[in-house]
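Protein in question kept in full:
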Amino acid sequence: MAAPTAYIVDAVRTAGGKRGGKLAGWHPTDMGGAVLDALVDRTGIDPAAVDDVIMGCVSQGGEQALHVGRNAVLSSKLPASVPAVTIDRQCGSSQQAMQFAAQAVMSGTQDVVIAAGVESMTRVPMGSTVAFYAEKGMGTPKSPRQEERYPGIQFSQFIGAELIARKHGFSKDQLDQFALESHRRGAAATERGDFGEEIIGLEIETPEGTQLHTVDEGIRFDATLEGIQSVKLLAPDGVITAANASQICDGSSGVLIVSEAALKQHGLTPIGRIHNLTVTAGDPVIMLEEPLFATDKALKRAGLAIDDIDLFEVNEAFAPVPLAWLKHTDADPDRLNVNGGAIALGHPLGASGTKLMATLIHALRKRGKKYGLQTMCEGGGIANVTIVEAL
């Protein structure tokens, strides 16, 4: 008897907004609610049929506090009878939401689950939930027992990115070249209309009146290598700059995942099926290197080779991460982040997982390709890998 299958019926995202930019006026729970509404509207499913909403969010404070997932449901057209849960696996939060949703469907526990993510990095700044307590002298997340195990070590994604660049021998010029290519690919994809199937428009107020925000605000359509190279280093002896790292971003995204029974019951047409769900953890100091080893495990479990995968989405948290992944896997760089990545499009933390899946599944279908692999580095040395087949 074949194992139960988890199907993707639709995957959507908002266009990214820069910090203080076009989405700054949107409350995060309303952004999340807009994605839930879009999935219901586009698929035609009865809102009451949704068994659960799993919402990823990293900075769960301020407007994203008190269970942003449930609040997004209450900001949407879903009935109040639809439950929700909010999860934090750092940058992989909504990718993990997607994997939990798939596991629920594959176990037979639930039939219709929305996995989503939201992050307003304008309204709830990165690190603000830690800074609030630190300012009051109430301590930090690193405990005395952690200090015993990792004495004097600061857990930092920025430090991890520098360590990866040093370990794998990447120069600043290589990182800057990669960043330029991200902008070029993002701009080209936008101009071709390749994001048309995945982006849902959000109304914003401008001096010219109400408009729909449908273009990723962070893309530099006129990016040059000279401009990227001119951005100052974040550490005097390092190689990381704001230009070769992901952009702070506001946004939301979501994926509707269902069982085979739900496909028939609700007359739904799937656009993809999930083949592998992997999560691993490793060194919390270099931290961002784990996608390399998680990919190895996922491919082995799926019985696939790297060349069997048609397209890859490797989150561009910092340029050394996808570059180290390419070096480790010997994957074809022309298949990686074909529509640009977080350096150009932005990285809305808790929303990035399902955001990448929206881009990946629609890119596969547009190109007539079959298999896609998505992976993301996460705080604490964790990584998720999801392998999907486009239908």
User: Anything to note?
Assistant: The longest helix spans residues 172-192. The longest strand covers residues 249-258. The CA atoms of residues 89 and 309 lie 25 Å apart.
